[in-house]
Structures are given as C-alpha cells and as structure tokens.
Specification:
Rossmann fold; alpha/beta; 7-stranded parallel β-sheet; 17 strands; 11% strand
Length: 730
Amino acid sequence: MSISAEISLNRYLKKYFGFDTFKGNQEVIIRNVLKENDTFVLMPTGGGKSLCYQLPSMILPGTAIVISPLIALMKNQVDAMRNFIATEDGIAHFLNSSLSKVAMQQVKSDVLTGKTKLLYVAPESLTKEDNVEFFQKANISFYAIDEAHCISEWGHDFRPEYRRIRPIVDKIGRAPIIALTATATPKVQHDILKNLGILDADVFKSSFNRPNLYYEVRPKKNATREIIKYIKANQGKSGIIYCLSRKKVEEIAETLQVNGIKALPYHAGMDSATRSRNQDMFLMEDVDVIVATIAFGMGIDKPDVRFVIHYDIPKSLEGYYQETGRAGRDGGEGRCIAFYSYKDIQKLEKFMQGKPVAEQEIGKQLLLETTAYAESAVCRRRMLLHYFGEEYTEENCHTCDNCVYPKKQFEGKEYVVKALKVIIAVHEKFKADHVSQILAGTASSQVKSYKHHLLSVFGMGKEKDEKFWGAVIRQMLINHLLEKEIENYGLLKVTEKGHEFLKNPTSFSLMEDHDYEGIDDDNAAAGGPTAAVDEELLSILKDVRKEISRKMNLPPFIIFQDPSLEDMAIQYPVTIEELHNIAGVGQGKAHRYGKAFVDVIKKYVEEKEIIRPSEMVVKSVVNKSGLKVYIIQSIDRKISLRDIADAKKLEMSELLDEIESIIHSGTKLDLSYYINEVLDEDHQEEVFEYFMEEAEDESIEAALSELGEDEYSEEDIRLMRIKFISEVGN
C-alpha cells in the first residue's frame, strides 16, 4: 500500500527522531520509498543515509528488511533505533549468527506479530532455508540494501554473498528495494542496479564534495617520523592512521606509544573484546589516535576526527574516499594525508598473483586509478569527484596540496591531438596503458600481439615516455575529451567534445606529474638518502671519522659507514638519543663513537643557524623481528648457517644480508664455529689482516680483487667481514 506523498514528513521526523529539518536529499528520497518505488541512494559518509530507510519503516505497515554486512554495525544501529523510539525494544531487531536460540525465537515472534518495524539481517542469514520460509510468512514493507557497493566486483569491499540477494528476494516475495552506498563510481553504480534488477530505479545522488577536507599526498620518506611530528604538532586532536597489514598496525601503534602519543591498534586479528575496548576508548576520547586496518571505521560515527593518515596507499580510490570521509564529519577541520611510494603499488600487485584472472584485472585497474591520483599534479578534489562521476568546475580548490603548491603548467595542444589520433586508430577498444605504449613507441608483447607496432601512428609521441602519456590521458579524461566505457571498464572512448577538439584544436594547459621514483620508504635498507646532503658537514664528519679511526687504529668504515654519515648530514642529530634514529646506527655504536659526531654537528648547526628537519626525538621500538631473534638465538646455539637458511627458506646470501643488518646495528655475533668449518686458520688470518690494515672501505669486490677470486668465494669474504666488524667494531 503506497502512502500519500502529501503527508507531513516533518511531523514524523520530529516524533521519531527529534529533528526539525531534513538534510540534503533525505526528504525527496523518503517520499520516493513511501510511493513504493525502487530507489538508489548515493550519499557520502555523514550525509544521513540511514534515515532514508529508518523513517519510512516507521510509517509503512509491515517490517523493513535491512541487509547489512557488519554484525557490529547492526547492533549499533538497533541500539540507536531503540533509543530514538523509546516505546519498546521490539521495534528494531537484528537477525544473525550471534543470537541464541531463545533470542532468535523472540525476534521472529516480534516480526510476525507486527511489533518490529526494522529488521537488520546479514546476507548470509537471508539465504538460510529456514529463514527464507520465515520471511515468506512476514509482511515485508521494503528491502533496504546498505553498503550496496559490496554487490559490485568493482567496489572496494566486494562480498560474493551480496550477488545472491536478488534471487533470494524473488524467492521470499518481491517488495520495493532501496539500495544505499557512500561510494560508487558510475561503473559500480551500473553494476549494483543491474545485479539487483532495478535498472529503472529512481537514482538520488548527493554531492561527493567535502569542502572542509584538505587532501595531501607525501612521498613515503621517513613516514613514521613525519606522522609523529604531525601528531605532536596537533596534540589532543583525534585521528585515524590506516595501514594495509596487521603487523604494521601493531608496529606503528607501539612506536606512537613510546613517543608519548595516546594510541591503540585495531585489526581483525585481535579478539573481539580487545577490538571493542580499543574502539570505545577512541570514541570516548581516552586515546587520541587509532591505528587500524580497513576493518575499522564502517559505521563509526565520531564527528570530530581531525585527521586521517594513510601510512599505506589504499587498494582503490573508493576505499580512500570512504576512509578519508571519516575526517571532519562535523564540518570542522579534517586533514587527509597519504604517504605514497610506487613500491607499495608493486607489493599490492604481487598480492593479487594467484587470484582468478578477472579479479586480477579488476584489481590492476583500481590500482592504476590510485596511482594516477597519487602521482597527478591536478587538483585532488577535482580528480576524486571526477572518479565518482561528478564535475568540479573551480580552477583552484585551495584545500589540496596540488592547488596550494601548484606544479608547472605547459602547452599541451599537440600532445592531446596525438593521443586522440591513436585512440581513434585503435578503434577505441584499448585502455590507457596500451595507448601510452603506442604513443611512446614501446613495442611490448601486448602491442605486437595486436600488430599495433605496424600502425602509422606507432611512436607518434616517442619524444616522451609512457608515464608522460599516462598523465596526458588522465587530464583529457578529467576535461571530458575522453571517457571510460562502463561495460568494459577502462576502454578509452573519444567524447563529442574530443571529436570537436580534433577538428579544431585550441590551447590546452597540461601539468607535470609528481615524480616519486627512487624515494625510499620507511622499510628501505640504509642506502643513499634522497634528501639534500649538506656536503660541507659531510666532509667535516668524514674528517672526524678519520681522526677516531687513527686514534683507535680501526678502519674508518668500522666507526660509521658512509650512508650513516650522509643521513647525519641531512638530519643534523645533536644528541646521542637522536643519533639512534640515523640509518645504520644502533644503540651500541651511538654510545661508543657518537659523542664526537653530535658535538661537531651541534656546533655546526649553531654557527650556521640551521633549522633542523625536526627538533624532536623519535624513539624507536626495539626491533622484535621474529626472523632476527631466531637468527641470533640459532647462532648462540651454534646451529649451522646452512640449516638456519633452510629452516627459514632463505638463500645463503639473504641470510648473510640479515646477519649484516644485525651486526651493523651494534649487536655482537660469534660465527667462529661456522667459519672454522669453511676456512682454515691461515685464510681467516689473511682476510682479517686485509680488513684491518689494507682495506680502504668494506667493498667485497675490492677484497676479492686483492686476495684472489680463485682463493676465496664472495661468501668467504662476507663471513670474514661479519666476523671482523663484530669483533673489532662491536
């Protein structure tokens, strides 16, 4: 039975929820549901989606079935409804595997007697045969499918069980459907409507623009240090830090804690009691920061989250938008900082290996979008909104790093024309990476398989590389010269505007992309730092090292290696404690040799009036890496290195890498028991003397050249170098 559209919804809104006015599209959506029309709602986080089905459920006769993916979220929603409608608990229930038999019977009784207006159901519970029979007896007013993006394989949180909703609804008995999501690209939206069989549904889209959020992408260099620095500068503010792995969540939470920041971890590997406790402590402001995997946040209604930091770049832009959307929900300040390294994208690509080909292809396309967002110098707000099918027309949003610190622009008319010609030459049947290869003249196996290396347009833009052409194509998409086909997502199509441009090319401004190549992330081995080294200070530090090496009669590289001195000439550590954070400097070395270095640096900083990168000390957590602990314990027990390598499925060279890392941090290891098996005493003495008397640096190649490659293997020299550094330096 359809309810008259003329009823006073404001009266019901005030009666049940205590509000005087609706937000955004809420009223028009609710009227559409009351008319029993199929409805699709696209509304960003914090826009008030839940009310769009909660209020109609109170007005319409019967029970509304809300299909929701999260058990914890269901309980929160049911509790909230019971608090609003304070008549009796039976008004709202949830039905899932966490209920006892008695509780399950009570729920079913309340539904059949008409007490329950709103019933939350997990998709798995919906499909159980006995539940299907029960629902067939109930009077269902409508079905609400929350988090509807879970239906689409292209969504950021695909759940296969969501694909079965429509057949089950048909089995139970058709009623109007309202599908709701906070994130859906045009492709995902089409998928949802098609899968639910409601292609003719009325669609209500709210703007995805969150004007109060500031978007920023930083290179992933010293990310942990940068995060601590940011939080210390914003003390007392609530924030969420997202990581992709549980291990990294634990590591960062612990590092924040030892640096005096009130932080707790949250991930699916923790027991539910601890997870709930940590979440509640964050909501109640007993802690300022939660470090979490994406398991955290769905349905978290904390309005004053002031920053969302992505330590790892997310797998999709939808996931990124959803997670950043938890900042500034009260309309106040919200900073969204993502740390980006292309190595992270490569790691995510590796994780996809072994999955079905279709899933890999989807994952790859979503990662390409994320990479494009991170590397592009175009307004980030404009890029995000374009991704969700919305146009942002302002030239400068003033609230993203690309607008506040714009990159250089250049005339791009000729590049745009070339790209349009290539896309038309391949009949608009290929994706951006393929088109970029043709333009750059890259005869990849894929290009050759279609014989596109024989086209007259092949190499038309060979003066530029594929990366450049990828940036051109992205900016053409944002300016609507191109579009991506929805059914075969990613295939580039020339729009009417694009055809017009080709007929009559006009001035077209392009921007240089960011270049994050070669930037080390937090986990990179101590190599040459990428920030600018103070060459004058580096020269002074080398003199200090030479002086100490003369006094102690030790080779200079035993004191500190070059990468460590270079890092000192970037970070300017002025205390022993700060020296602990320098690449390759462990606690032992810092205390044994560090004083002379920090004294010199302190004097230099004062004389030159240098503003240091950070005036704070970042304390690091003792390395508890299971592998390193295992290696140290095994060597203490004199287990053969070959057996250690086999046990941990390592190549011998990889095991030696780990051992070198341990001894460079200042830990002493005694490998004599193993070395005695592979090298006689005379050979050991010769190598030891070489490193003590002759070696100018620690180079293995130089040692082999001097001592004879026919006499020693690379492994022999590495073992002796480890013994030498451990005994003499540590």
